């Protein structure tokens, strides 16, 4: 009886030893492999444009860049101001080759983009102020250039638009002095076809290279269409900034032979300021017994065009605030293609405190757009601290409770 027990114990110990030895050998092989293959970092590059340029902010340069940097430092005069950050291009990358500006033939043969990069390598302290002042004035006047191509496919009866790139966009972010641009394109006048490109991060020269094909458009109708490009900068925390727009009437443009390459200067967005933002008729009634506020959105008139396409599709969003904190929101139905909308919609809000001292109401008139974010046409605030007719209207409903009081109000910019 003792012999089988001893044999079983020894066999168990042998099994445990062999398993542990096998695991130890595997761990040694994995550690040796990990030491042989160094870690690497993957940067997504799309046709020469870095999607994540913030990963390249380190000061390390490799290979030929270190040598060229040492040569530039040795050749640079002592009285010049050298800025390492300025050696990067507008996408945050370091140029592969750097050369000195000495002769006029080099200036004539070099492209404008390379010339600006070379010019930034050395800046004297005396001319620094003049250069920055000129650059600020040019940025205010110029909004950049949009490059695109147009083509018509007769076999598929399709209109093809390729948005290639934009150059020289202004910086919409004052802290990083860059933008996050993207483009919205609409075919006017019907606004049936709406597309937009992807957002390119932290660049003033975005290379989109995106093709949009619109089927079912007869070639005979191309002359009646107009392309509207809206160039915007994405903002994660607020409404996107509008950089400018480009309007291309297709009348007189021949697309029967081959692809047509075009470029247009970006201009400021066309907003009719003379007609204002329109007016809104609001009726209010404060019930002190039930501590409720009745709001009736009646009418809107003289609303401006939201874009160059024609009439807008307005609706009203009502936000109730208590001590600058939104506690309730409502919205009306959308009225199609009209500058003079009739809503006649009633909303009842429960007031969380007695009295209207800390209560205010915000009215946002928006243009409904299925393809993208709805744009604000005008804004109105009613409350004790509001100015103009908004404060007067609020004062009247506080003095005369249980009375429905209606007034027209001018809308301001959203």
Automatic annotation (TrEMBL):
Residues 62-72, 114-123 have a biased composition (Basic and acidic residues). Keywords: Calcium, Cytoplasmic vesicle, Membrane, Metal-binding, Phosphoprotein, Repeat, Transmembrane, Transmembrane helix. Coiled coil: none annotated. The chain crosses the membrane at residues 6-27. InterPro entries: C2_dom, C2_domain_sf, Synaptotagmin. Residues 94-113 have a biased composition (Polar residues). This is SYT4 protein. One of its GO terms (molecular function) is clathrin binding. It is found in: Cytoplasmic vesicle membrane; Endomembrane system. Residues 62-81, 94-128 are annotated as: Disordered. It is a single-pass membrane protein. The gene is Syt4. Pfam families: C2. PROSITE patterns: C2 (PS50004). GO terms for biological process: calcium ion-regulated exocytosis of neurotransmitter; negative regulation of secretion by cell; vesicle fusion. Residues 142-263, 276-409 form the C2 domain. The lineage of its organism: Eukaryota, Metazoa, Chordata, Craniata, Vertebrata.
